[in-house]
Design goal:
The chain is an alpha+beta fold. It has one helix and six strands; from the N terminus they run E-E-E-E-H-E-E. The strands form two sheets. The chain has a four-stranded mixed beta sheet. Strands 4-6 form a two-stranded antiparallel ribbon. The mean pLDDT is 93.
């Protein structure tokens, strides 16, 4: 059975679903929250998004009883601003769409 991991990273959490590629049946899922934001500034550390992805993906793969899937699809939040230096290193919290 071929398995596909679907990832949705929003401002609140990262969700992962593992599905059967042939019929779309849900096999397992995982979820990990992102740090809360407080008005008037809505910012998050992008490293927290990576940590949430690792946690949610591990939960889903564990629930599916596999070490990895055959494919992955990723949907992420829009209208955010991640600031990087010349070496591609994050230099400040990311501004979210609602800031």
């Amino acid at each position: 059975m071929a398995l596909v991991a679907g990832v949705d990273s929003s401002t609140q959490s990262t969700k992962v679903e593992i599905r059967d590629a042939a019929d779309g049946r849900l096999i397992a899922s995982g979820r990990a929250g992102h740090p809360p934001t407080s008005p008037p500034r809505s910012e998050q550390d992008p490293h927290a998004w990576c940590a949430a992805l690792e946690q949610a993906l591990a939960q889903a793969l564990d629930g599916a009883g596999v070490a990895r899937g055959d494919a992955i699809a990723v949907a992420g939040q829009q209208h955010g601003m991640g600031v990087l230096d010349a070496d591609g290193v994050v230099i400040r919290p990311a501004k979210l769409w609602n800031d």
